[in-house]
Amino acid sequence: MSSEQAAAIDQLRKEVNAQAQRELLTKMTEKCFAKCASSKGAGHLERSEQLCLGQCIDRYVDCMNAVNEALVNRQQERS
Q1: 0.90 exceeded by the pTM?
Q2: Which terminal CB of the chain, N or C, has fewer other CB atoms within 10 Å?
Q3: Cα-Cα-Cα-Cα dihedral of 59, 63, 64, 65, to 10°?
């Protein structure tokens, strides 16, 4: 593989990762906001809504980290 091909593959991986992160952020925002925010259109979130959103995001991130770790472990076992 040439250095140009390797650079192109590396760039593609970076773009795919960036897109995956944007999709994760969008999904997390939609799901957590739908679950926690009840004061739609009020222009601000109540304290309880803020806490709910923070906890929801924390759980979502923890879950994604556990999934990623499991995938890495599985991939290492195959190698």
Answers
A1: no
A2: C
A3: 100
User: How far is 56 from 29, CA to CA, in rounded Å?
Assistant: 9
Q: Contacts for 25-30 with beta carbons within 8 Å, 24 or more apart?
A: 28/56, 28/57, 28/60, 28/61
Neighbours of 50 (CB within 10 A): 13
Q: In 10 A of CB 32, how many CB atoms?
A: 19
End-to-end CA distance of the chain: 21
- Model pLDDT for residues 20-72, shown as the tens digit of each residue: 889 988 999 999 999 998 866 667 888 999 999 999 999 999 998 998 899 88
Written as six digits, the tokens of 14 are 């970076």
User: In this structure, which amino acid lies at residue 25?
Assistant: L
